[in-house]
Design brief:
Blueprint lengths: L6 E7 L1 H6 L1 E7 L3 H7 L8 E8 L2 H11 L4 E3 L5 E6 L2 H15 L19
Antiparallel strand pairs: 1-2, 1-3, 2-5, 4-5
Helix pairs in contact: 3-4
Length: 121
C-alpha cells in the first residue's frame, strides 16, 4: 500500500497582482512561511490568498490548472506558466467545488480574508 503524502495547495499573489486578478496556482510540501521566503527576491510583497493542507493537493492543482488553462499567462519562453489572470472568486469557488468532489469529508473553506503583509514579511 502506498503511503499518502500530505501537501498543500495554494494561490499566491501580490497587492498589485491581486488588483489585476493575477494569481499563481501551485502545490508544495513545505510550510507556508518557508515557501514565502523563496519568493522574497522576485515578489517582495507576496502573500497567499489561499493555503490549505490536504492529501488531495495534487489532484486539486491538476483540476484547477485544467479548468483555468485558457487564462494561463505565457512565460518568457512562450510556454504556459502557473500564473493565471482570472477573478479570485472564480478560483475560490472552483477550488471548493473540487475539494468537495475529491474529499467529500473535508469542510468547505471559508472565503479567505486578504491581509497584505508589511515590507518585512
Amino acid at each position: 500500500m502506498t503511503e499518502s503524502i500530505m501537501g498543500s495547495f495554494y494561490i499566491l499573489t501580490t497587492p498589485e497582482y491581486d488588483l489585476e486578478g493575477r494569481y499563481k496556482i501551485g502545490i508544495t510540501t513545505q510550510t507556508a512561511s518557508k515557501l514565502l521566503k523563496q519568493y522574497t527576491r522576485f515578489l517582495p510583497q507576496r502573500y497567499f490568498r489561499l493555503f490549505i493542507e490536504t492529501p488531495s493537493y495534487k489532484l486539486i492543482e491538476k483540476g484547477m490548472k485544467h479548468r483555468f488553462n485558457q487564462y494561463s499567462v505565457q512565460g518568457y519562453d512562450e510556454a504556459k506558466s502557473e500564473w493565471f489572470i482570472v477573478p479570485f472568486m472564480d478560483l475560490y469557488n472552483y477550488f471548493n467545488e473540487l475539494l468537495q468532489k475529491i474529499t467529500p469529508k473535508y469542510p468547505k473553506v471559508e472565503t479567505p480574508k486578504v491581509e497584505t503583509p508589511g515590507r518585512d514579511s
